Q: What sequence folds into this?
């Protein structure tokens, strides 16, 4: 309930900012936060435990929404104020590392260090497709990933908000001078990014295990994918992610599995030597 109240406050700020005066927005946001806290307190006092048992797809949807709320919260109350104070990118990068450490240890305190698995999706009979054998859950993971990639690409290419996102990414000042609400578009990007990251966590936990460091183990591969595809381009991140994933997985056919990340990073270094801007990046003049 507390998270729901915080999420409601963020949504009020995101969608009603500019339509109401600042005082009204603050009242609505604090009403949402206090309402969530009060409801959670009453449930604790009366011993009300909802004991929700929901299907995995419903839990995944809730996780995606909460991840989007977390991303938009950080944008609205952390990154936007830092940008307005002209904080340098390297300083913001250091802040993001510190924030990641804090969030990771908060999860450690709340949920412990024990690894957990999705109980109903571990032991499955393999599905044989020619020379390839895999459990049904991996087929579902791949299908969901492909569908999400296609939907995100279509959103960026054909929708109004997608075109605004690409315009802001290409030239923020020019987009703002053209009448695009850059702050709102950035907020939408963070909401979308947080939701997609949460979905990736659900799918990764379905294939592996769930613990507080599961995302940290993929961090180097994520950097390699973004650099390989090209900084500043969404399609480059998609292509780079697929390339790094294929290299990391296929390397286990000939080399120990412990070296899979090393080969992905070697591919990134090779790309920086041959094509520093990445596969889909553009050369930019500096200075």
A:
């Amino acid at each position: 309930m507390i998270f729901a109240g915080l999420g409601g406050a963020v949504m009020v700020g995101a969608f009603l900012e500019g339509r109401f005066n600042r005082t009204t927005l603050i009242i609505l946001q604090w009403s949402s936060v206090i309402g969530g806290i009060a409801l959670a307190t009453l449930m604790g006092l009366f011993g009300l435990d909802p004991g929700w048992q929901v299907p995995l797809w419903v839990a995944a949807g809730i996780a995606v929404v909460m991840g989007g709320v977390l991303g938009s919260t950080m944008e609205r109350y952390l990154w936007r104020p830092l940008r307005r104070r002209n904080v340098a990118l390297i300083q913001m990068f250091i802040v993001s590392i510190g924030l990641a450490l804090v969030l990771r240890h908060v999860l450690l305190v709340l949920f412990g260090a024990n690894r957990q698995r999705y109980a109903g999706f571990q032991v499955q009979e393999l599905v044989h497709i020619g020379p390839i054998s895999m459990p049904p859950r991996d087929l579902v993971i791949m299908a969901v990933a492909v569908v999400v990639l296609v939907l995100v690409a279509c959103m960026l290419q054909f929708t109004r908000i997608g075109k605004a996102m690409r315009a802001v990414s290409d030239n923020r000042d020019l987009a703002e001078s053209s009448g695009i609400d850059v702050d709102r578009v950035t907020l939408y990007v963070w909401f979308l990014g947080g939701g997609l990251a949460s979905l990736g966590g659900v799918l990764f936990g379905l294939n592996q295990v769930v613990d507080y460091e599961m995302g940290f183990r993929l961090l180097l591969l994520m950097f390699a994918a973004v650099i390989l595809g090209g900084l500043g381009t969404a399609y480059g991140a998609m292509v780079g992610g697929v390339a790094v994933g294929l290299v990391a997985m296929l390397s286990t056919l000939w080399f120990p599995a412990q070296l899979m990340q090393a080969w992905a990073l070697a591919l990134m270094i090779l790309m920086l030597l041959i094509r520093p801007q990445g596969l889909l990046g553009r050369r930019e003049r500096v200075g």
